[in-house]
Amino acid sequence: MFDRILADYLVEKGKLGPEALEKIFELQARKRVRLGMIAQSENLMTPEQIEEINKLQSLTDKRFGDLAVEKGYLTDSQVSRLLTLQGNGFLSFVQSAVDLKYMNMNDVVEALNDFQQDNGYTLTDMDNLKSCDIDRIVPIYLYDLPGYAKELIGVAVRTLSRLVDYHVYIERPYTSDKLVTENLCYQASVGDFNLLLALSGEEPTLIQTAIGFAGEQYIDDLDDALDSICELINCINGIFATDISHRFINIDMLAPHYKTGPSVINAEDIINIPLHLFDKPVTLTVLLSDNYTVE
Amino acid sequence: MGTILIVDDSRTMRKVLAASLKEAGHYIIGNAGNGQEALDLLKNLSPDLPDLITLDITMPEMDGIETLKRIRAEYPGQKVVMVSAAGQKDKIMEALKFGAVDFIKKPYDPDEAMETFKKILG
Q1: What pLDDT, on a 0 to 100 scale, did the predictor assign at position B108?
Q2: What ipTM describes this predicted complex?
Q3: How far apart are CA B69 and CA B74, in angstroms?
Q4: Cβ contacts (< 8 Å) between B104 and chain A: which residues?
């Protein structure tokens, strides 16, 4: 995730151009291998075990390594070693930028210092960012949000990373009393507390998101895409509902809806999280209330 | 192999499930986007009812549980499999109490779903 965040920063500061960035990402993608493939090549897991864990991942909010440990296929130390072998997105981004001679290491150090200063991050924040671990990065962006919103957004980002785009990344959230957007997919949940979860954005990005989730053969047009994203939201809310039910907090998900074209949500304290899927912006919206209108 | 009616408000999910079922040799007798549509369709099909109905729990207007109750009241022998997202354990328990024979989870795991259908339809 931090590779994408840093890349945006470097483009914004004029240190890298879009074309250079594209080439860096291409090289980086060629180097990245899935954890399951590494586990198989190290003879630690069978293809059947890997398939089983991949399936479980679509139903739970857990990482491949954690599930493999739970199932007894890997130990914690084996997972740590595999993660090292897999590499870190930030490091592979830097390595690719240096290999392609768009930057040297001094440029990288300087850029990281500027990034830290410009954003007001601590050294601990920077360590967490550089880890490229979603669980360590997301809280940096969400520290001042209410507990349930923080938890739900964490589930959403992890689920999007697993089921749609591994390179999903977030920006700082902002609150508003009105969200003016387009192509809005949303689902309300009611119970011990009420909430609304929504995803919106431009047509091409949402179509790509839906294809990532459901498969190209099922997405013919924008309506298919939004319909499919409603199911994705249902899936995120379902995982969140399961998590909180372990603490005896219960919510029921209502049927999701979507609206094509310009859309507006009116409510107090709407939490908007700018997300990037396939390097393009979408907005994830959370509202901890049932007092809203959609136009 | 059997005849199956798919009830789900998501047309994409209907397509995804239908593709797997067809591949496994089943025949899709119809699709419905909500509970009322399903009841209307069953009325038209009767007495040639499907071997199995897949029924999504979360739907607008008439949800899966209400639809299940009405189907079971009207057609007591009708086999129904519920379709649920994670986090709907209570709803699944309720559906089983009202006569659903089993449930499958969304997002679909085609192998797991087909295994469930095979158990029911033989």
Answers
A1: 81
A2: 0.84
A3: 9
A4: none
DSSP A53-85: HHHHHTTSS--HHHHHHHTTSS-HHHHHHHHHH
Domain spans, chain B? 3-121
| Per-residue pLDDT, A63 | 83
Mean pLDDT of A114-125: 93
The domains of chain A are located at 2-136, 145-294
Contact predicate A134/A158, CB 8 Å: yes
Nearest to A31 by CA among A87, A79, A81: A87
> Under an 8 A CB cutoff, do A245 and B87 touch?
yes
Q: How confident is the model at residue A145 (pLDDT cuts 50, 70, 90)?
A: confident
Q: Measured between alpha carbons, how far apart are the two ends of chain A, in Å?
A: 33
Over 90: is that where the pLDDT of A43 sits? no
Closest in B12, B85, B106 to A227, CB measured: B12
Give the pLDDT score at A259: 96
> Taking CB atoms and an 8 Å cutoff, what residues of chain A touch B105?
59
Numbered residues of chain A with Cβ closer than 8 Å to any chain B Cβ: 55, 58-60, 163, 210, 213-215, 217-219, 223-224, 227-228, 230-231, 234-235, 237-242, 245, 250-257
Provide the angle, in degrees to the nearest 10, between the axes of the packed helices B11-23 and A222-245: 90
Among A154, A133, A159, which Cα is nearest to A143's? Answer: A154
Q: How far apart are CA B63 and CA B72, in angstroms?
A: 14
Distance from CA of B116 to the nearest CA of A (A): 16
Q: Which helix (H) or strand (E) holds A195?
A: strand A195-201
Q: Give B18-29 pLDDT, tens digit per residue.
A: 998 998 899 999
This prediction has a pTM of 0.81
- The CATH-assigned architecture of domain A145-294 is 3-Layer(aba) Sandwich (3.40)
- Judged by CB atoms closer than 8 Å, whether chains meet at B87 and A228 is answered as no
Task: Tell which residue, B110, B113, B80, B38, has the closest CA to residue A214.
Answer: B110
Residue range B3-121, CATH number: 3.40.50.2300
CB A219 within 8 A of CB A149: no
Question: Is residue A65 packed enough to be buried (19+ CB in 10 Å), middle (13-18) or exposed (0-12)?
Answer: buried
Output A22 or B110, whichever has higher pLDDT: A22
